[in-house]
What we know:
Helix content: 25-40%
Oligomer: single chain
Order of helices and strands: HHEEEEHEHEHHEHHEEEHEHEHH
Number of strands: 12
Number of helices: 12
Low-confidence stretches: 327-334
Amino acid sequence: MKDIYFEKDYGRLYEKIENGKCEEFILNHALGTVRHLFIKREIPMKLDDRVFYDLMTPYGYGGPHIVSGKPEDKEELVAVFQQEFGEYCLENGIVSEFVRFHPILKNHLDFSTCYELIFKRHTIQTDLANSADPILTEYSASCRRDIRHALKAGVEFRVIDHPENLKNFKELYTSTMQRNSADAVYYFDDEYFQNCIDWLGNYLVVVEVTYQGSIIGMSLNFVCGDYIHVHLTGTLKEYHQLAPAYVLQYALVLWGKEQGKQLIHHGGGRTGEPDDKLYLFKKKFGRNEEFEYFNGRKIWNPEVYGRLCQVVAAPMDTDQFPAYRNCESKVTNG
C-alpha cells in the first residue's frame, strides 16, 4: 500500500523534532517483503561506556507492513521478520521500540505476535468511495446546515494542489495553536514547513477559506495514493460564526471526490474517551465506519532495558514506555 506515512522523506520531517535519525529496515525473503520505517534515537545515558538507542514511529502512523507475499505465508513471514529484526536491533544497540500502527492499513493485526498491542482510540474517516454524495451520507445534519449558511453568507474556498509556499498557512496555524494554548508538540518552525515544501511538495494540498477577501481558515493535507490525510488546520476565532472549519472539510470532500480518492482520514481525539471534544468534532464528518488505532511496544533487549530503568530508578511495570525515558511526552503520545 502506498501512503505518505511510509515515505522516508516524511520520516525525515521529524528527525530534528525527535532528536533522532530516520532509518528503514527492509526484509527481502522468499516468503515476501516487509518494510519498516522508524526514528532511531540515542538514549541519553550510557552503560559500560556504550551508546544505546530506541525506536519510534514518526508523528502520525506507520509501523512494519507487508508489501509482498502470499496470504497463506503471512504468519511465517512475520516470524522471520521478528527474528531478523530482533537480531538487527541487538547488533545495533537498539533496546526498545514504540510503534504507532496504521489504522487504515490495520497492520497491527499482522504483527500482533511481535508487539504488545494497546488500543488507543478510534479514528474518523469520510468515506468518498462508497457514496455518490459523502456530504449527505457522512456529515451530520447540523454540519451541513452550518456549511449552507456559510456559503450563503458569502464564504468562499479554493483548493491549492502542490502549493509553492506555506507562509500564510504557518501564520494562521501558529496563531490558532497560541489561542488554544496547545502543547509544544503541536508547534512547528519555519524549517519544518519549508521541508514539507522541499521534500513532500508533490503530496501537499492546501485548502483556503475566505470571507470578503480575508483568509479565515486554512488546512494542510497530505494526499498519497487513494488517501487524503488532514494534517494541520487553522481558523480565525472572530469568524467562528461562519464555520470556516466546516467549509475547509467540505472543500476537501468535493476535491477528493473529483480526484477519485477513497477516503479522507481525520485522525482521532486527544484521548480515547467517547466524549472527547476533538473526537466529537471530527465525528461530524464521518458518521459511519471508524478505524481502530493501536500502539505497539517491544523490548528488544530486556537485560539492557532493565539496567537503564535501574539507572533512573524507574519501575518497569509503569504505563509509560519506555520507562527509562522519564515522562517523555513525544514517546507516549499517539
